Amino acid sequence: MEHKKFRIYLVTDKVNGPSFLVKARSKAESIRHVSRKNFSCRNIGATEVIYFLEKGARIEDANVDCDILLVADSD
């Protein structure tokens, strides 16, 4: 098995501005590393999907490039 070499990636937060130099094997790995500090992810059920859709969220396709829509809780 061939080991992929590390590269240095510049990961930039397009919303808040900071940039990070990350030693990683791929772009995805470098973004995953930086995003862990600011984001969490979990599966949700139909009730929560409906709740967020009613608040104005959109379901985004991870395989399509698109802008990020931030949902602000107005309550």
Could you explain how this protein is built, in words?
- This protein has one domain.
- It is α+β, with helices and mostly antiparallel strands and 75 residues long.
- The protein contains two helices and two strands; from the N terminus they run ββαα.
- 24% of the residues lie in helices and 16% in strands.
- A two-stranded antiparallel sheet has the order 1-2.
- The mean pLDDT is 84.
- The protein has helices at 27-35, 46-54; strands spanning 7-12, 19-24.
Protein topology:
Blueprint: E1 7-12, E2 19-24, H1 27-35, H2 46-54
Antiparallel strand pairs: 1-2
Quick structural gist:
The protein has one domain.
Helical coverage, percent range: 10-25%
Termini separation comes to: 53 Å
What is the number of E strands? 2
Q: Strand portion, in percent?
A: 15-25%
The computed structural class is: alpha+beta
Dominant shape: elongated
**SSE sequence, one letter per element:** EEHH
Spatial order of strands in the largest sheet:
1-2
Q: Which sheet architecture does the biggest sheet show?
A: 2 strands, antiparallel
How many distinct helices?
A: 2
Uncertain regions: pLDDT < 50 for 5+ in a row? Answer: none
Count of folded domains: 1
Summed over residues and divided by their number, the pLDDT gives a mean of: 84
Cα radius of gyration in angstroms: 16 Å
